Amino acid sequence: MGGSGMPIPVAALDNDRMALMAMRGILPQLLPGAQWLWGVAEAGEAVRLALAPDTRPRLMLVDMSLDDGTGVGVCRRIRRRTDRVLLLAVTAFSVDTYADRAAQAGAQGIVSKADVPAMAAALRTVAAGGTFAPAGVKAPFGSAETVHRRLEDESEGSSSGTDGGRAKLGAKETETLRLLARGLSYEQIAAQWGIAPATVRTHAHRAVDKLGAKSLAHAIAIYLSR
């Protein structure tokens, strides 16, 4: 993409404003030809800017852990509406925590914030139309076009029962999905609630059944959809 000589508009969503400033400063070195478009800390604002024609970036970095939502949810909301924004998930935690969900939500790759060489490789690969996963990560990242079509199909199918099923979730089942979506493990949720991890797993499995999901990851994706 950069070979055409056209600038590559880049935006970022990160709840750490210092991280946004750092990314803006180093971006020209990581991705030659990049043009910084905007950086915001709020999920809703990022979705609005990404979908508006006059503020839509070509490539958007999405922090996976946010104060007012989840990066997975942001990716999914954007990808359901458009395939014109390339999405790169970034995280300060282990990439394994979010890789599969980010891929299913429409991201083209994931990379650790701490790995600058990998960040450069990821930006260049995704900007060129490819997909990126660090060594050892097997997440099924796909093209923006492919995942956009899949999420559109899921959205059409949800009107015949998925959303209604979501309303039937109990409070603990809903909260379990929310915390799993934020990257917490069964053990961490159990410690937070003062219960056994097996009980948390039961809440998760019930949520999968009630939503008619194919897997826990699919149930989380349904929960995160807007």
* Biggest β-sheet strands, sense, barrel: 5 strands, parallel
CATH superfamily grouping of the largest domain = Response regulator
As laid out across the biggest beta sheet, the strand order is 2-1-3-4-5
Instruction: Count up the domains.
Output: 2
Task: Give the ordered list of helices and strands.
Answer: EHEHEHEHEHHHHHHH
Which architecture of the largest domain per CATH?
3-Layer(aba) Sandwich
> Rough shape?
globular
Cα-based radius of gyration, to the nearest Å: 18 Å
Number of strands: 5
Name the beta content range: 5-15%
Structural class: alpha/beta
Q: What value does the average pLDDT take? A: 88
What ranges have pLDDT less than 50 throughout 5 or more consecutive residues? 159-167
Number of helices: 11
CATH level-1 class of the largest domain: Alpha Beta
End-to-end separation: 31 Å
CATH topology of the largest domain: Rossmann fold
Can you give the helix content as a percent range?
40-55%
- What does the oligomeric state look like here? single chain
Region (Disordered): 146-168
Domain HTH luxR-type: 162-226
Keywords: DNA-binding, Phosphoprotein
Pfam families: GerE, Response_reg
Describe this structure in words.
- The protein has helices at residues 17-30, 43-51, 71-81, 99-104, 116-127, 144-158, 162-167, 171-181, 186-193, 197-211, 216-224; strands at residues 8-13, 34-40, 59-63, 86-91, 109-112.
- It is of the alpha/beta class and 226 residues long.
- The longest helix has 15 residues, at 144-158.
- The protein folds into two domains: 2-148, Response regulator (Rossmann fold); 158-224, Winged helix-like DNA-binding domain superfamily/Winged helix DNA-binding domain (Arc Repressor Mutant, subunit A, Orthogonal Bundle).
- Helix 8 (171-181) crosses helix 10 (197-211), helix 8 (171-181) packs across helix 11 and helix 9 (186-193) packs across helix 10.
- Mean pLDDT is 88; it is low at 159-167.
- The protein has a five-stranded parallel β-sheet, sandwiched between helices.
- Pfam families: GerE, Response_reg.
- One of its GO terms (molecular function) is DNA binding.
